């Protein structure tokens, strides 16, 4: 009789081999939850719950400890939960709760840590692990005073517990640092509120009228503010100022125009008699000695500003008369002034403005 022919063997890759091991009841990492279990799996499951509640829970605790050593914290917590669910006696239940708290501490589930530790302390008010792990969770939650209390109780019962002493020191340092930071933040916010209130009062005293920004205007990185080096009893304000050149439809910004500074100082710096000229000044008309300054008030009045005048002088000149409220306009956190060559260009611009207002 002829010998049977050899049968072809099925090739398995590494993943298939691992899957085959995981499917075998003896090598399963966890029991399946399906109702129709393999008989061998069913037998293993029955075996896992064979014994008294304390014996079963103790077995689950040992399994959970293996998972924890392998840093499989979720698996460990799940197994500890199985042990807790069989309702063992207090001597087994306390370490199961503490161990599950350790898993949740690693997983940063601090609320669950506190719940399990609280239950463990109900069983044993001197539970060293429950006290310490409660302290760790409370520090993570920035509940420093409660953490310190937990450490104090732990050290009182276990004077040699260096971890609890170190945690207590950490909690004290963190609490003090947080308190200092909160105080600094509160002081900063108070100072900012006082400065905003002082600035608001200063703007009103200077007859400055703030108007809403247009939706298309770009945010201004500069804002009016009080000079921190000025006399607190008579603070000096600093403004962003636009110098507009209507003849050429362009402008310059002076980011810090101190209100006590005369216009001549800025104009002299921007248009020196013998300095280089802007590209747009093709007719060489813009030099400090031949320029004039105009301001427009909220009520559309036109004011000629002498170059020796300061912003403070202009604020007074722009004030309304006979009970009429008027003043310079602050828009997009900026004041604006028109700069023109004196003579023909100036006269034409003034007349054109007056005509536009009259319409």
Protein described:
The protein has twelve helices and eight strands. It is α/β, with parallel strands linked by helices. The chain has two domains: about 20-30 and about 40-175, Alpha Horseshoe (Serine Threonine Protein Phosphatase 5, Tetratricopeptide repeat); about 225-359, Roll (Ubiquitin-like (UB roll)). The strands form two sheets. Strands 2, 3, 4, 5, 6 and 8 form a six-stranded mixed beta sheet that branches. Strands 1-7 form a two-stranded parallel sheet. Helix 4 (about 75-85) packs antiparallel against helix 5 (about 90-105) and helix 5 (about 90-105) packs parallel to helix 7. The radius of gyration is 40 Å and the shape is elongated. The model has no long low-confidence stretch (mean pLDDT about 90). GO terms for molecular function: Hsp70 protein binding; Hsp90 protein binding. Pfam families: Wheel. Keywords: Repeat, TPR repeat. Belongs to the TTC4 family. This is TPR-like protein.
Please describe the biggest sheet, giving its number of strands, its sense, and whether it closes into a barrel: 6 strands, mixed
CATH level-four homologous superfamily name of the largest domain = Tetratricopeptide repeat domain
Q: Structural class of the helices, strands and pairings?
A: alpha/beta
Residue fraction in strands: 5-15%
Count of helical regions: 12
Q: Helix coverage percent of residues? A: 40-55%
Mean pLDDT: 89
Number of domains: 2
What is the terminal separation in angstroms? Answer: 123 Å
Q: Helix and strand string, N-terminal first?
A: HHHHHHHHHEEEEHEEHEEH
CATH arch. level architecture of the largest domain? Alpha Horseshoe
List low-pLDDT spans.
none
Spatial shape: elongated
Strand tally: 8
Global Rg: 40 Å
Q: Say what the CATH topology of the largest domain is.
A: Serine Threonine Protein Phosphatase 5, Tetratricopeptide repeat
Organism: Sistotremastrum niveocremeum HHB9708
Keywords: Repeat, TPR repeat
Protein name: TPR-like protein
Domain Cns1/TTC4 wheel: 232-353
């Amino acid at each position: 009789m002829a010998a049977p022919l050899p049968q072809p063997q099925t090739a398995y890759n590494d993943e298939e081999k691992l899957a085959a091991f995981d499917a075998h009841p003896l090598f399963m990492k966890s029991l399946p939850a399906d109702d129709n279990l393999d008989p061998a799996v069913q037998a293993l499951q029955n075996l896992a719950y064979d014994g008294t509640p304390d014996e079963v829970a103790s077995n689950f605790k040992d399994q959970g400890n293996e998972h924890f050593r392998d840093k499989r914290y979720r698996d460990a917590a799940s197994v500890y939960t199985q042990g807790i669910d069989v309702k063992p006696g207090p001597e087994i239940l306390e370490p199961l709760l503490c161990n599950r708290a350790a898993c949740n501490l690693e997983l940063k589930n601090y609320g669950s840590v506190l719940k399990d530790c609280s239950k463990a302390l109900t069983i044993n008010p001197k539970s060293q692990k429950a006290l310490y792990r409660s302290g760790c969770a409370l520090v993570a939650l920035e509940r420093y005073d409660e953490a310190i209390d937990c450490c104090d109780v732990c050290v009182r019962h276990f004077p040699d517990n260096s971890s609890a002493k170190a945690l207590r020191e950490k909690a004290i340092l963190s609490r003090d640092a947080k308190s200092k930071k909160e105080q600094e933040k509160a002081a900063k916010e108070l100072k900012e509120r006082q400065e905003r209130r002082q600035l608001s009062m200063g703007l009103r005293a200077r007859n400055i009228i703030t108007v809403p920004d247009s939706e298309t205007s770009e945010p201004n990185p500069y804002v009016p503010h009080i000079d921190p080096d000025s006399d607190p009893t008579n603070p000096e304000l600093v403004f962003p100022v636009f110098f507009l050149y209507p003849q050429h439809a362009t402008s310059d910004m002076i980011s810090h125009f101190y209100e006590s500074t005369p216009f001549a100082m800025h104009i002299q710096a921007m248009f020196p008699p013998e300095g280089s000229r802007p590209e747009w000044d093709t007719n060489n008309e813009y030099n400090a000695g031949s320029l004039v300054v105009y301001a427009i008030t909220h009520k559309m009045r036109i004011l000629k500003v002498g170059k020796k005048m300061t912003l403070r002088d202009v604020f007074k000149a722009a004030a309304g008369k006979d009970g009429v409220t008027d003043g310079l306009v602050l828009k997009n956190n900026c004041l604006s002034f028109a700069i023109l060559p004196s003579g023909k260009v100036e006269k034409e611009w003034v007349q054109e403005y007056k005509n536009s207002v009259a319409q």
